[in-house]
């Protein structure tokens, strides 16, 4: 099969499009013909070697976590899926979605939303689950809550605005001037243009702040967080880990880091939102797998609005 492979850490050019052996599935896995994947920032952070303490030096390595495609084979223990099912999901920490075929754990997949293309569906798992689990599990979002999404036009942010609205929250989206109309179209009740205003100097306090682009610290957000409000960031740091521990012990405001966990039930929930017209994917650009180098280069520019999709088959 064709795949995008790396044999060392480095620049986008270390990604090579070549022939490799297809994977063999475990009893609890699906063999999936991949129709689409996407580029998440974690992909190029791994490629650069920033996460080698987790990924090690197990080369050759196929990157890519999110995918959508068609089941071609199921393991002996699989109960929920059968060959021919159109699914979407996440391959887990081992990666492997930048390929024509990949193995997917049953517990990390769900049936693809019927109203999404393969590219749109493949863009959901990491970003959509990050948004959902931040808002629901860490922020305990409730109807009427005031929620601020920093980075509202990005991959996580575009889903977070829509999911927060689906929970009945009042949403403020932070973005640049050129993305104001997009964030409004996703349902945001209020927009802060960060080129004109610093949201940490706002006069409003929020029940929750989701820093989906990890640009502002818990300390800088405390003034605009309610006394029992929750701050969530998508990028762990030494400072944020310390704050997580301290605020877990002390009463009052909470600081949290999110690490999205692939779960069938959560993917099924996002599928329901999509099919109810409450969740859509914003795709900035779509690249064929052969142009994965260009896709990574664009993602690293940090100018992406929504998601970068990868068309595979």
Keywords:
single chain; 313 residues; alpha/beta; seven-stranded mixed beta sheet; six-stranded parallel beta sheet; 10 helices; 27% helix; globular
Any overview of this molecule?
- This protein is globular.
- Helix 8 (238-249) links the parallel strand 13 and strand 14 (254-257).
- 48% of the residues are buried.
- Strands 3, 5, 6, 7, 8, 15 and 16 form a seven-stranded mixed sheet that branches. A six-stranded parallel sheet has the order 11-10-9-12-13-14. Strands 2-1-4 form a three-stranded antiparallel sheet, with no helix packed on it.
- The protein has helices at residues 41-48, 52-55, 118-122, 125-138, 155-166, 180-185, 218-221, 238-249, 264-275, 292-300, and strands spanning 2-6, 16-19, 29-39, 61-62, 66-74, 86-90, 101-105, 109-111, 146-150, 170-175, 190-193, 206-211, 225-233, 254-257, 283-288, 307-311.
- Helices cover 27% and strands 28% of the residues.
- It is α/β, with parallel strands linked by helices and 313 residues long.
- The protein has ten helices and 16 strands.
